[in-house]
Design goal:
2 domains, alpha+beta, 18 helices
C-alpha cells in the first residue's frame, strides 16, 4: 500500500545503515501479556556482521524507481543518517503477535522528525494528545512519543469487536508481558535474534479459534526460547524450555526421562555423506502425550487419500512403528534421487499385508527384513543397503531423541542432473552454484532441555551473514 511505502523502505534499510550510540528504552512494556510469540532483534549487531553498503546495491536502485521524489529523498536521507526519520535504527527492535495484531516496536530519538516525515508523505492523518502521536485506520496504527515507536497491523480480517490500538501503547504492568516470569528469563538472552514462544498463549488462542494445533495441558507454564547467531563460518540456532516453577520443570523431566532415544541401527544402510538425513525414535503413545496430534492427523488424512480406501495407513503401518525411523536423501545423479527409508516395527506381519496392498504392481523396492521395514528408491540406495558399512555418523546421533544432518560438500556434482530434469532451475544457476559452495554441512544436537542446530560454511574466516549478503546482492 502506498501509505506504507516509506515505512517499508525504512524497515528494509535497517539492516545496513550506521549511526551513533543509542540509549535503550523499555519497549517490551508495550507487548501484551497474552502475546504468543515475541522476536527481539539486535539490529546493530546484525548490521556490523553483514558489513554491507546498501547505497551500492543495484536491486535497491531499481526498486526506488517505483517511488515518488519525496519518498526517494527521504530514503536517501535515511541512508546517509539513520536518525533522519526519528527512529533509533541501531537500537533493539521487537516484533510480536497475540493473534489479533502484529506489532513492531522501536526506540525514538526525535518524535518531531517522525511527524514531519509522515506528514510530508501524506500517508496519515496524524493526531497528538498529551505528547503521544497517533495515526490509525481500520487495519493498522502508528503510535509514538519521545521514547518509543509502535506499528500495529490487524492480523484478523473478520473481527466482531474493533481493536483499540491505543491500549497497546500504554499497557498497565499486570497486562504487559514483562510480568511473565518466563519472559523475564528470556530477556537475559544476548543473541542476534531471540524468539520467545508462550505455549500457554498458543493453546488459549487455538481453543478460541479452533485451530488445528492445540498445545497439550502438560505444557501449561512452559515457554521456549529460540536464539539465532551469525558467527564466523557458521550459523547457530539454539532452543531451550523455560519453566515458571521448579515443580513444572520436575514434571517435564519425569516425562522426558521416559522417552526413547535413537539406537542408530539403520545408519549402516545410508550414505556417509547424505544430502539430508533425518532420524527419530518413534513411539506414537509417548509422542501424543506432549502434543495432541491435530496437525499430524490432518497430514495423515492427506496421505491416506493418496493410498486409497483399501489401505489404513495409520492402523496398518504407522501404529506398527516402534523404534528408529530413518529417512535419507543419499545422493542425486542421473540414476535419480537416492532415497532410503527404514522403520523399526512392533508387528512385522501386519506391515507385510500393507506392503502387498501398496505395491501390487511391484513398482517399489520395499519390504520387511527381520523386524524392520525398508524402502529403497534406486540402485544407489540398493547398493548402500546391500553393503551395510559402518557409518561415522553413528557417534553423532546415538542416544539423541532426534537427529538432523546434511553434507553438501559434493552437491555441486548433482547440479547437471537437476538442471536437465528441471530446466526452470537453470535460470538461477549462478546463485545456486555459489550457494551450494557456501554451505559445507549442517547438524543438530539435542541435550535435555536444549536443542542446537548448526549450519557450517565452507569459508570459516568471514561472518556467515556477510557471506549471505555477498551471495544475494551479487546477483
Amino acid at each position: 500500500m502506498k501509505k506504507l511505502c516509506f515505512i517499508s523502505l525504512v524497515c528494509a534499510a535497517m539492516m545496513f545503515v550506521s549511526c551513533g550510540k543509542k540509549t535503550a528504552t523499555a519497549l517490551e512494556s508495550s507487548i501484551p501479556k497474552d502475546a504468543m510469540l515475541v522476536a527481539r532483534i539486535d539490529i546493530k549487531n546484525l548490521i556490523t556482521k553483514a558489513d554491507y553498503n546498501l547505497s551500492e546495491n543495484q536491486i535497491l536502485e531499481e526498486f526506488l524507481t517505483e517511488f515518488d521524489d519525496v519518498g526517494i529523498k527521504n530514503f536517501n536521507n535515511f541512508i546517509k543518517n539513520s536518525n533522519s526519520f526519528g527512529i533509533d535504527v541501531l537500537d533493539t527492535a521487537y516484533l510480536f503477535t497475540d493473534g489479533k495484531v502484529i506489532g513492531l516496536l522501536m526506540s525514538v530519538n526525535n518524535a518531531k522528525k517522525i511527524y514531519k516525515n509522515l506528514k510530508t508523505g501524506n500517508a496519515y492523518e496524524i493526531k497528538k494528545e498529551k505528547g503521544v502521536y497517533s495515526a490509525t485506520n481500520d487495519s493498522e496504527s502508528i503510535v509514538w512519543d519521545n521514547n518509543k515507536f509502535m506499528l500495529l497491523v490487524n492480523e484478523e480480517e473478520d473481527i466482531e469487536n474493533e481493536i483499540n490500538f491505543a491500549e497497546y501503547f500504554n499497557l498497565p504492568a499486570e497486562k504487559s508481558i514483562v510480568s511473565d516470569i518466563n519472559f523475564q528469563k528470556f530477556m537475559l538472552s544476548k543473541s542476534d535474534v531471540s524468539v520467545y514462544i508462550s505455549y500457554s498463549n498458543f493453546g488459549n488462542l487455538a481453543i478460541q479459534n479452533r485451530h488445528y494445533f492445540k498445545i497439550n495441558e502438560n505444557y501449561e507454564g512452559i515457554s521456549a526460547l529460540a536464539e539465532l547467531d551469525f558467527e564466523n563460518g557458521k550459523i547457530v540456532a539454539r532452543s531451550k524450555y523455560l519453566y515458571e516453577t521448579a515443580e513444572i520443570e520436575n514434571i517435564m523431566e519425569k516425562n522426558r526421562s521416559a522417552r526413547e532415544l535413537i539406537s542408530g541401527e539403520f545408519l549402516k544402510y545410508v550414505s556417509q555423506k547424505p544430502l539430508i538425513l533425518f532420524v527419530i525414535n518413534h513411539n506414537e503413545k509417548k509422542m501424543s502425550y506432549y502434543v495432541k496430534n491435530d496437525i499430524f492427523n490432518l497430514l495423515l488424512d492427506k496421505a491416506q487419500y493418496f493410498f486409497g480406501d483399501d489401505v489404513d495407513l495409520k492402523k496398518e503401518f504407522i501404529s506398527n512403528i516402534k523404534g528408529d525411523v530413518v529417512v535419507a536423501l543419499n545422493n542425486i545423479d542421473y540414476d535419480g534421487f537416492s532415497i532410503s527409508f527404514f522403520a523399526k516395527l512392533s508387528n512385522a506381519n501386519a506391515v507385510k499385508s500393507f506392503i502387498k496392498k501398496v505395491n501390487r504392481a511391484g513398482m517399489f523396492n520395499m519390504g520387511v527384513k527381520d523386524d524392520y521395514f525398508y524402502f529403497l528408491s534406486n540402485n544407489h540406495a540398493k547398493k548402500l543397503f546391500a553393503k551395510g558399512a559402518e557409518n561415522n555418523l553413528l557417534k553423532n546421533c546415538k542416544e539423541q531423541p532426534i537427529f538432523i544432518y546434511g553434507d553438501w560438500s559434493n552437491l555441486k556434482a548433482s547440479l547437471p542432473f537437476i538442471y536437465e530434469e528441471y530446466p526452470v532451475v537453470q535460470m538461477f544457476a549462478p546463485t545456486i552454484e555459489k550457494g551450494v559452495l557456501l554451505i559445507e554441512n549442517f547438524e543438530s544436537e539435542f541435550t535435555k532441555d536444549n536443542a542446537e542446530f548448526t549450519i557450517n560454511f565452507t569459508d570459516k574466516t568471514q561472518n556467515s551473514l556477510k557471506q549471505i549478503f555477498q551471495l544475494v546482492m551479487s546477483n
